[in-house]
Design goal:
Low-confidence stretches: 1-22
CATH topology of one domain: Cytochrome Bc1 Complex, Chain A, domain 1
Helix content: 40-55%
Mean pLDDT: 94
Radius of gyration: 29 Å
Strand order of the largest sheet: 3-4-8-5-7-6
Shape: globular
Distance between the termini: 47 Å
Strand content: 15-25%
Length: 978
C-alpha cells in the first residue's frame, strides 16, 4: 500500500523537476547587496559563487537548519606541487599554519624574531650538511635555540581562539592538489572567525618547528605501519610514473623529512597561498549579502600574483599488467587499478556510474556475484577522481584457502560482464534513483554541502556539471556503458597490487632525535587574542529537547511507535529496536548477518537485493551486545513497499545450507583476520583489562561451536524476531498516526510479546594494582592505552566531567594532554584522555588515556602521561576557554530529525527524562579549576592503572614493560575467545 503526503510529493516533484529539466540547469549571474555573483539554476543548495577584486573565490551556501557554519579555506596546492627536492613540504606548511603570526602565538615578537631567524639559518646548515657528527652538533644548537624561542612563543593560541568561539573539528588536510583548512563554527562567531583567518593567512610564522617536525615524523612512521597506505602509494606510483601523483607522496620521503628547509616552506607559501589560488567556502546559517562583504573586508588586502602552472608529461598507455608486491602484518588482499581521464571530464562522471554498477551495496555485479554468493570475503569498486587523471579501484579480500590470483580472476570476470553487457537492463535506472535519494540526503547537511563545493573547487569540476550529473546519467544507455567499458577496462591495461601478509623488509623508520621539552606557555595570552575575544558576537539561545512535545507517539499493533516528522523533504527512516543482543543470545548477530544470503520460496536473495535497490531503499539488521536493530532508509513514496518487502523476507526466509557453509567459512576468515589487525587486538586488550579474562570482547563462539550452528537455529531466530518486544521509530513526512497505520498493516506483532532471554552479565573489575597487558604486533609504532575502572554513574557529576574532559584530554590541541605530550615534548602524533561515563545508569565510569608513539619513545611517553595523571597543570584561562567552548557548542547544537528519538532512548537508559545538556549548560559557570582539580585528585592522581600496549617485541623489551606494573601477555585465543 503506497502512502505519500502532499509535502513529500511536492518536494520530490520539485527535486525531480530540477534534475530532469536539463534546460534549467545553467549558469546565471545576479547582483545583490552590491556584489555580483554566479549561481546555477535548479541548484538545491542555492550556492553563490563570487570572485573578489583580488581573485579570491568566495562560495556561499546558506541554510538555516542549525545556527552553525562549516568553513573551508582551500588552497589549490598540495603534494603534487611540492618541489622534487623537498617532498612533503605542502604538508609541513599545513602544520605550521596553526602556529600564529607576528601578532599572535607570541608574547613578544621583537624578542622572539632573532631566535627564529637563527633557527632558520641553522636548518639551512643542517639541510646542506652530510657529515653526521656535524649534523648532530647543529641539531643540538637547533634544540637549544628552539627552547629559548619557546619561552616567548605561545603554543596553540590559534586553537584556543577557535575553541573560545565554540569552534569544533578545527583541522586541516593536505592531498595531491589541495591543502584545506576546516572549521565548524557558531554563526554568531563569524565576524571573529573571518578576522582571525585573514590574520592567520597574512603572515604565518614558522615557530615551535622542531617539535612539530617530530609530530610529522610520527605521522610518517604511522604510515609505515599502515598497510592500506603502502598499497595506495604503490598503486599511485605504478599508475602515474610521469605525474607527481605517483612520483611523490603527500607526507614526503624520509630523506626529505630529515632535512627540512624553513626557507623552502616559506617560499612555497608565497608562491601558492595567494588569493587567486584560494577559496573561502561557507555553508550554514547566514545572509550571503552580508557575509560576502565581510569576507572582502577581511581578505581583500591579499595580493594576487601569477601561480606557476603544474606541468607533466602525459602518461603512456598501459599495455600489459603492471604488478607490485606489498608486505605487512595485516591480512592479504588485492587491488586492481585502471587509469581514466581527470575529474572535470565526462568520462570521469561515467566512471562514478561504472563504480556503482560494480558496487552499490545491494545490486552491483560485485555485490551479487562475489559477495552475495560468498565467492570472496569482500569485494568493492570505487572511483578516485583527481584533476589530471582518475582511477577505478577494485579491491578484493580472499576467503580461506583462496589465492590472490583467484581473487583477481573473479573480479576480472565481472569486468568482462560489463564489457559484454551481461547486466540487468534496469541497473542504470536503479543507480540513478538511488543517487537522487542520496542527493536529497546530502543537501540536508551544511557540512556535506561545503565539502562538495570545496572538492569541486580544488579538482576543477564545474558546479553546474555536478548539479546536472544525475540528470546526465539518467540518459546513459546500456550500449554506451558497454562501449565505455570496452574503451577503458581491457584485460591488459591495469595495475595490480598484491598485498601479502608477512614482514616488510623495506621499512626504514624516522629515527628519534634528541628533543628537550619546550615551554608551551599555556597561561599566556597575546594582545591579539584579547582583541579577538573583545569583538562582539550575537547571543544565541540554546534549544532544549522536550521529549513529550518533540516526539509523537502511536501504536503499531502491540509495538510502541515514536516519531519525528520530516517537514523538509521526502526521506524516511524507520527502525525496529529490540532491547536484546548477543548477551541475550550469541546467535543473534550471526542470524542478523545470515539473512542477507537468504531468499523465500518465491524470491532469491539476489531478487530481494535488486528489489530493495529499485525502491531506492537500504535496509540492514545489526545486532550488538545489548540491542538489535532493523534499519530502513528511503523515499516516502516507497515506504509501504519497502516494509512489505522486508517483512516477507523476515517471515518467510528459507534455510540455505550451502549459503550457511559459505557464511561460516567467511566468518572464520574474518575472525582470523581480526587477529592480524592491531586495532582489534588493542580493543581485546582493553576489554581484558576492564572486565578480566572473561569479557564482552571474547564472549563469542569457539570454532567448534561455530561449526555446530545449523540453518534451522538461525531461521528460527529470524522468524520469531517480531515476537519479542520492540519499539518502532519513524522519521519521515507522515505523522506518527499515519506511519503507524502502514506499519500495523504490514508488520505483524503477537498479542503478547515473548520475554527476552536472560542476558549475560559482565562486571568491571577494580583496578587494584598497576598491570601491563601486552600484545606483540610487527610495527614501528607503539599503541599505549591507560585504562582505569571508576565510580558508578552519577548524573550530577556530568557537568564537571564534561569540563574536565574538555580541559584535560578531549579538545585536541587546546587540551593539556596534547599540549604537553605532542607540542612540548614531541612524543606523539596523537594523544588523548577521557573520563567516560557509561551508557546505562547501573554501570560504572571508566578512564581511557592514549598515546600513539614510536616504540623507542615508550619510556618517555608513559612517564609523560603519568605526570599529567598525577598532577593537573593549572590554567584558569584554560578552564575559561574550555567552559566557553562547551557553552557555545551547546548553544548552537540543534538535535533534529531522528537524532531526537535516539537522544530520548539514550536518556532513558541513564534514568533521565530530560535533556541533560541543559544541566551542563546551567552548571558551567559554577565549575572552576579548583573543582576539576579536586575531581582529578580523587579519581586519577596516584591511582593504579592497567596499561594496554600493542607493539613489536623486537622494539619493546619485557624489562621496560615491567617498570610500569605486573606484565601479562594473554595469547590470541584468550583475547579473542577462539
Amino acid at each position: 500500500m503506497k502512502q505519500k503526503s502532499f509535502l513529500a510529493g511536492l518536494v520530490l516533484a520539485f527535486f525531480a523537476l530540477n534534475l530532469n529539466a536539463q534546460s534549467v540547469i545553467a549558469w546565471k549571474q545576479a547582483t545583490s547587496g552590491g556584489y555580483t555573483y554566479r549561481y546555477v539554476t535548479g541548484d538545491p543548495t542555492h550556492s553563490r559563487f563570487y570572485t573578489l577584486k583580488n581573485g579570491l573565490t568566495v562560495i556561499l551556501s546558506p541554510t538555516n537548519k542549525q545556527p552553525r557554519i562549516q568553513a573551508y579555506i582551500a588552497v589549490k596546492a598540495g603534494s603534487k606541487t611540492d618541489p622534487a627536492n623537498h617532498t612533503g613540504l605542502a604538508h609541513y606548511l599545513e602544520h605550521m599554519m596553526f602556529k600564529g603570526t607576528d601578532k599572535f602565538g607570541t608574547t613578544n615578537w621583537a624578542k622572539e624574531k632573532p631566535y627564529l631567524d637563527k633557527i632558520d639559518a641553522l636548518y639551512e646548515q643542517y639541510n646542506s650538511t652530510t657529515d653526521e657528527a656535524k649534523r648532530k652538533e647543529i641539531y643540538k644548537e637547533i634544540d637549544k635555540t628552539s627552547g629559548e624561542a619557546a619561552k616567548i612563543s605561545i603554543a596553540n593560541e590559534y586553537d584556543k581562539m577557535m575553541a573560545s568561539m565554540g569552534g569544533q573539528n578545527s583541522n586541516a588536510f593536505t592531498s595531491f592538489e589541495q591543502t584545506v583548512y576546516t572549521e565548524d563554527i557558531p554563526s554568531s562567531s563569524l565576524d571573529k572567525f573571518l578576522v582571525l583567518q585573514a590574520e592567520r593567512f597574512r603572515n604565518p610564522i614558522m615557530r615551535i618547528f622542531h617539535t612539530e617536525l617530530e609530530a610529522v615524523y610520527e605521522e610518517k612512521n604511522r604510515t609505515l605501519d599502515d598497510d592500506g597506505r603502502k598499497v595506495s602509494e604503490a598503486m599511485f606510483a605504478a599508475v602515474f610514473p610521469n605525474n607527481n601523483y605517483g612520483k611523490q607522496t603527500t607526507i614526503g620521503t624520509i630523506e626529505h623529512l630529515k632535512n627540512p628547509s624553513l626557507n623552502a616552506i616559506r617560499n612555497y607559501y608565497y608562491t601558492y597561498y595567494v588569493p587567486n589560488n584560494m577559496a573561502v567556502i561557507l555553508s550554514g546559517d547566514f545572509n550571503p549579502d552580508i557575509v560576502v562583504k565581510k569576507v572582502e573586508q577581511t581578505f581583500g588586502n591579499m595580493k594576487a600574483k601569477p601561480v606557476p602552472p603544474y606541468t607533466f608529461a602525459p602518461e603512456q598507455p598501459i599495455t600489459s599488467p603492471v604488478k607490485r608486491d606489498v608486505y605487512g602484518p595485516n591480512p592479504e588482499n588485492l587491488t586492481i587499478a585502471f587509469r581514466f581521464p581527470g575529474a572535470s571530464t565526462r568520462d570521469a562522471r561515467l566512471l562514478d556510474l561504472m563504480g556503482s554498477m560494480l558496487t552499490n551495496g545491494k545490486a552491483g555485479l560485485f555485490d551479487l556475484d562475489l559477495v552475495k554468493k560468498q565467492k570472496l570475503l569482500s569485494a568493492g569498486a570505487s572511483s578516485y577522481t583527481l584533476k589530471d587523471y582518475s582511477v577505478l579501484l577494485l579491491r578484493g579480500n580472499p576467503i580461506k584457502g583462496q589465492s590472490l590470483d583467484q581473487v583477481k580472476d573473479l573480479m576480472m570476470t565481472e569486468i568482462s560482464k560489463l564489457r559484454n553487457g551481461e547486466f540487468s537492463d534496469d541497473l542504470i535506472k536503479s543507480i540513478v534513483n538511488n543517487q537522487k535519494k542520496e542527493k536529497i540526503i546530502d543537501n540536508e547537511s551544511y557540512v556535506n554541502r561545503a565539502s562538495n563545493l570545496m572538492s569541486d573547487f580544488t579538482s576543477g569540476v564545474d558546479w553546474k556539471t555536478d548539479i546536472a550529473t544525475v540528470n546526465e546519467l539518467s540518459k546513459i544507455t546500456k550500449a554506451q556503458i558497454v562501449e565505455f567499458a570496452n574503451k577503458y577496462l581491457n584485460d591488459n591495461d591495469y595495475v595490480i597490487i598484491y598485498k601479502h601478509q608477512g614482514e616488510d623488509k623495506n621499512i626504514l623508520k624516522v629515527e628519534k632525535p634528541a628533543i628537550t621539552p619546550v615551554e608551551v606557555n599555556a597561561t599566556s595570552q597575546s594582545e591579539y587574542l584579547k582583541k579577538i575575544e573583545a569583538l562582539p558576537s550575537n547571543a544565541v539561545k540554546p534549544v532544549w529537547l522536550d521529549y513529550q512535545k518533540d516526539i509523537q507517539r502511536a501504536k503499531a499493533g502491540k509495538a510502541d511507535l515514536l516519531a519525528v516528522q520530516n517537514k523538509d523533504n521526502s526521506i524516511f527512516r524507520l527502525y525496529y529496536r529490540f532491547d536484546m543482543g548477543s548477551w541475550n543470545n550469541k546467535l543473534l548477530p550471526v542470524a542478523a548477518q545470515y539473512i542477507q544470503f537468504l531468499g523465500t520460496k518465491t524470491k532469491t536473495a539476489e531478487n530481494f537485493s535488486k528489489e530493495f535497490y529499485k525502491l531506492a531503499t537500504s535496509y540492514s539488521i545489526s545486532s550488538g551486545t545489548e540491542f538489535t536493530q532493523v534499519t530502513f532508509s528511503g523515499l516516502q513514496e516507497n515506504f509501504g513497499a519497502s516494509v512489505k518487502l522486508f517483512e516477507d523476507l523476515l517471515a518467510n526466509c528459507q534455510p540455505d545450507e550451502e549459503a550457511l557453509a559459505g557464511f561460516k567459512a567467511r566468518l572464520k576468515k574474518s575472525r582470523e583476520n581480526a587477529k592480524l589487525n592491531k586495532a582489534s587486538i588493542a580493543s581485546a586488550l582493553r576489554s581484558y583489562a576492564t572486565y578480566g579474562p572473561s569479557n564482552p570482547f571474547n564472549y563469542t563462539f569457539t570454532d567448534a561451536e561455530l561449526d555446530a550452528i545449523t540453518a534451522a537455529d538461525l531461521i528460527s531466530i529470524l522468524h520469531s524476531l517480531n515476537n519479542y518486544k520492540h519499539t518502532v521509530l519513524y522519521y519521515g513526512p507522515q505523522t506518527a498516526q499515519q506511519a503507524a497505520l502502514t506499519v500495523a498493516q504490514l508488520h505483524k506483532t503477537p498479542a503478547a510479546f515473548t520475554p527476552y532471554p536472560a542476558a549475560k552479565v559482565f562486571t568491571k573489575v577494580p583496578t587494584g594494582t598497576n598491570q601491563v597487558f601486552f600484545a606483540n604486533y610487527d610495527m614501528v609504532q607503539a599503541e599505549i592505552y591507560w585504562v582505569r575502572n571508576e565510580d558508578m554513574f552519577n548524573a550530577t557529576k556530568t557537568p564537571e566531567i564534561e569540563l574536565f574532559n574538555n580541559y584535560f584530554g578531549t579538545s585536541g590541541f587546546t587540551s593539556i594532554v596534547l599540549q604537553n605530550i605532542r607540542e612540548a615534548k614531541g612524543l606523539a602524533y596523537s594523544a588523548f584522555a577521557v573520563y567516560q561515563q557509561p551508557v546505562k545508569k547501573d554501570d560504572s565510569n571508566v578512564f581511557i588515556g592514549y598515546v600513539g608513539t614510536q616504540a623507542d619513545k615508550l619510556n618517555e611517553a608513559i612517564p609523560a602521561m603519568n605526570e599529567l595523571l598525577n598532577k593537573l597543570p593549572e590554567s584558569e584561562k584554560g578552564v575559561i576557554g574550555a567552559r566557553d567552548n562547551i557553552r557555545k557548542s551547546i548553544e548552537t547544537e540543534r538535535v533534529t530529525q531522528d537524532d531526537i528519538l535516539f537522544s530520548y532512548l539514550a536518556a532513558q537508559r541513564l534514568g533521565l527524562n530530560y535533556d541533560a545538556r541543559k544541566t551542563t549548560f546551567t552548571m558551567l559557570d559554577k565549575i572552576d579549576f579548583k573543582t576539576i582539580n579536586k575531581f582529578h585528585q580523587e579519581q586519577l592522581a596516584n591511582k593504579p592503572f592497567a596499561y594496554c600496549i600493542v607493539a613489536s617485541e623486537k622494539r619493546v623489551s619485557d624489562t621496560d614493560l615491567k617498570k610500569y606494573g605486573q606484565l601479562i601477555k594473554p595469547d590470541m585465543k584468550t583475547l579473542f575467545g577462539y
